[in-house]
């Protein structure tokens, strides 16, 4: 018995893939062949490096887009159909919603292309190429070059390189720094300005779980929406929607897998992660922990409570503030989790230990001391100085500009500068006014002055109480002298007398703008006082410390890379195209708690509570799920899988990114990270870091079975190729299949069916022979 048991265990060990290891890194696809491809193959990748990134031929990079500069999307059809997250499309969905036709609440799937909804101002960028321009940017710059001169030279060269790459407006281009300014890369994109809403599930599905489940696992959220990119008749981008535009034909679109995922499967996330600070030193982490995050949490908590109170009292106000609330709440909870995680994981202590080791390495060699010796000391001194002004920076951003009337007043700044200039051209003034008229329509569509007045009184009171008096704007002296220190009384005055609180009055001002009227407006005076104080008393000091940090951080990061030559560092995220790779994995966050890597539709029914707005389940969905009507989207276990976890390294901006299996097929859409690893932007946790993804089969189920959008699903290239590489590696045929026409695909299927019949007959004959004793 024991011998047989060990034999079975050995066989099981050979069949199960090697223990998954979390892979830190958001990698530039330009270098995937040199840095990552071999490791990716070990994990189950079956694509060549060129199938992932190629400048001259269609590759996966051509199926990935940056949506609006804030999210990621992916093409899933040859007609420009694109998937992203529900929360990425939230603003667009809300903008087409009215109390009479609230598609945010009830969902929407276009029956045909004529029903798709245009979104002026929304765009997607598709990468054409990326290029290492470090040598061109840093040519002639030495350690002796002053920081001011260095900054001027670099900015000038970045602009020149980008302008040349734009080719007279044909492309969008920019140059970004990497590794704290030690390297520079240029990115060239095509920008498509005609992006139309195709579909979205009801908010009760797209946002199921609300703030309670946000950043949490297990998850049951159908966080997806669908758009279509349009181009001119030559398949070229246009700046905005045009009547004769047609669906864009992408160079590459992702085949969609119906097979699902298994634990240990290879998983790649391709997208545009926003911002990480993995090289942030201990002093910077400590400042974030002590000041920055607590202030953000406190101010956002106040704003959210006021918005929620008014939204609960009025469906119209709720619709106006739905998108804004979701945006602010998302990172309010994130900041809470990040601080808790930093304390639990002792992130600051770990960084201090790393810095102590680095200092020992520097001290061991005189030449190292010359290059890096003062870096950490300069960093610590700079952060000590920043600590004195940090609250002012946060409160200007989160308190002053957290009130909508103050932020809206800031849009008047270009016009204000022109009105103050006696030499200003009338045409320039009219141009500034025209630009503002568009802002007026946008602002007041989702604005409620009584709500904003409550926020103004609360946040500005906190600003005056928490920021050192010597750093406060003079408007607070006005409040003290004329309103007895009551911010509520001052708010009453501002909102009763500022034209910025009224659409009609703002439009009247723009019809005949004067300097006197703008300068004397109490809403604008508040913004002007805050801005003047910030630019004159706060910003110069902050910039001085930041200049020191720029030089010191550059040396610090260079020292880390020079010391740890056995480690290949991934650059911090900066909204440029990256890929991360890893595996489908479950996790155990704490003692006696073990999470599976997937959730099913049963969890939706378990959480169903139609008295709680966060856990409402639409009637039709509830009926379909209770009937187990999963159609062709059921997993092999007979259930409908809703979400799954991988250990991919992601951050904000990856929202909407495709989760791609080893054959290059879409298996899910990334939409969140997990609560236990909220420190991920600052420090990677190899044991707990998880990427939460909606299963693509649940997406398709919602579109076809729930939304009646079978035609949309049929537009995609659906494949069912068996187990994902990493569990039982197979030859890669998806790339070829994706290029075949319908007739050829039918032939392939017929051949496969014929092969299966032959195999079945052969096995039958073998069984008969065995039973006959042959």
TrEMBL record:
InterPro entries linked to this entry: Pep_S46 (IPR019500), Peptidase_S1_PA (IPR009003), Peptidase_S1_PA_chymotrypsin (IPR043504)
Compositionally biased residues, Basic and acidic residues: 765-774
EC numbers on record: 3.4.14.-
Pfam family, one: Peptidase_S46
Class of enzymatic activity (EC top level): hydrolase
PANTHER family linked: PERIPLASMIC PEPTIDASE SUBFAMILY S1B
Job of this protein: Catalyzes the removal of dipeptides from the N-terminus of oligopeptides.
Record-given protein name: Dipeptidyl-peptidase
């Amino acid at each position: 018995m024991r011998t047989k048991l060990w034999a079975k265990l050995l066989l099981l060990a050979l069949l199960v893939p090697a223990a998954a290891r979390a892979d830190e890194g958001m990698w530039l696809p330009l270098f995937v062949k040199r840095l990552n491809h071999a490791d990716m193959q070990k994990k189950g990748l079956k694509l060549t490096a060129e199938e992932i990134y190629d400048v001259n031929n269609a590759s996966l990079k051509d199926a990935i887009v940056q949506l609006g500069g804030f999210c990621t999307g992916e093409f899933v059809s040859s007609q420009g159909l694109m998937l992203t997250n529900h929360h990425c499309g939230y603003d667009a969905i809300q903008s087409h919603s009215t109390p009479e036709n609230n598609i945010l609440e009830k969902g929407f799937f276009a029956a045909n292309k004529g029903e798709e909804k245009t979104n002026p101002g929304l765009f997607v960028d598709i990468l054409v190429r990326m290029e290492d321009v470090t040598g061109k940017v840093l040519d002639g710059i030495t350690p002796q070059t002053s920081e001011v001169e260095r900054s001027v030279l670099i900015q000038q060269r970045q602009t020149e390189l980008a302008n040349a790459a734009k080719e007279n407006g044909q492309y969008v281009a920019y140059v970004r720094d990497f590794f704290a300014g030690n390297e520079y890369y240029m990115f060239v994109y095509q920008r498509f300005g005609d992006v139309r809403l195709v579909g979205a599930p009801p908010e009760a599905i797209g946002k199921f779980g609300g703030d309670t489940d946000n950043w949490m696992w297990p998850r049951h959220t159908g966080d997806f929406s669908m758009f279509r990119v349009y181009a001119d008749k030559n398949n070229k981008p246009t700046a905005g929607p045009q009547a004769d535009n047609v669906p864009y034909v992408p160079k590459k679109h992702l085949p969609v897998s119906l097979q699902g995922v298994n634990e240990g499967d290879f998983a790649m996330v391709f997208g545009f992660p926003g911002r990480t600070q993995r090289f942030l030193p201990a002093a910077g982490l400590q400042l974030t922990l002590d000041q920055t995050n607590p202030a953000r949490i406190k101010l956002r908590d106040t704003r959210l409570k006021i918005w929620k109170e008014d939204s609960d009292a009025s469906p119209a106000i709720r619709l106006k503030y739905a998108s804004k609330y979701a945006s602010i709440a998302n990172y309010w909870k994130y900041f809470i989790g990040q601080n808790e995680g930093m304390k639990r994981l002792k992130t600051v202590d770990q960084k201090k230990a790393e810095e102590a080791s680095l200092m020992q390495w520097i001290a061991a060699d005189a030449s190292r001391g010359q290059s890096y010796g003062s870096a950490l000391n300069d960093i610590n001194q700079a952060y000590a100085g920043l600590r004195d002004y940090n609250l002012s920076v946060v409160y200007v951003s989160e308190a002053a500009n957290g009130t909508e009337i103050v932020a809206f007043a800031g849009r008047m700044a270009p016009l204000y500068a022109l009105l103050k200039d006696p030499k200003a051209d009338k045409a320039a003034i009219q141009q500034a006014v025209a630009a503002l008229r568009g802002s007026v329509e946008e602002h007041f569509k989702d604005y409620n002055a009584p709500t904003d007045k409550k926020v103004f009184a609360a946040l500005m009171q906190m600003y005056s109480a928490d920021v050192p008096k010597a750093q406060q704007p003079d408007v607070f002296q006005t409040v003290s002298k004329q309103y007895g220190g009551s911010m509520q009384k001052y708010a009453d005055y501002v909102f009763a007398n500022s034209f910025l609180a009224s659409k009609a009055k703002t439009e009247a001002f723009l019809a005949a703008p004067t300097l006197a009227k703008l300068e004397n407006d109490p809403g604008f005076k508040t913004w002007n006082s805050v801005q003047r104080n910030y630019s004159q008393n706060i910003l110069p000091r902050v910039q001085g410390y930041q200049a020191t940090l720029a030089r010191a951080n550059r040396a610090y990061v260079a020292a880390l890379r020079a010391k740890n030559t056995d480690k290949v560092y991934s650059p911090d995220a900066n909204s440029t195209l990256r890929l991360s790779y890893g595996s489908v994995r479950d996790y155990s966050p704490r003692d006696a708690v073990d999470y599976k890597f997937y959730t099913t539709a049963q969890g939706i029914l378990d959480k169903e509570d139609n008295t709680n707005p966060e856990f409402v389940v639409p009637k039709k969905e509830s009926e379909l799920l209770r009937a187990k009507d999963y159609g062709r989207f059921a997993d092999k276990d007979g259930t409908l899988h809703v979400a799954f976890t991988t250990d991919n390294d992601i951050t904000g901006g990856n929202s909407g990114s495709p989760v791609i299996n080893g054959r290059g097929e879409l298996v899910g859409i990334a939409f969140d990270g997990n609560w236990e690893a909220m420190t991920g932007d600052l420090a990677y946790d190899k044991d707990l870091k998880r990427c939460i993804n909606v299963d693509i089969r649940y997406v398709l189920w919602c579109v076809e079975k729930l939304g009646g959008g079978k035609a949309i699903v049929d537009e995609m290239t659906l494949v069912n190729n068996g187990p994902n590489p990493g569990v039982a590696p197979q030859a890669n045929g998806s790339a070829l299949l994706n290029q075949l026409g319908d007739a050829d695909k039918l032939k392939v299927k017929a051949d496969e069916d014929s092969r299966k019949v032959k195999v079945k007959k052969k096995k039958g004959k073998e069984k008969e022979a065995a039973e006959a004793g042959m």
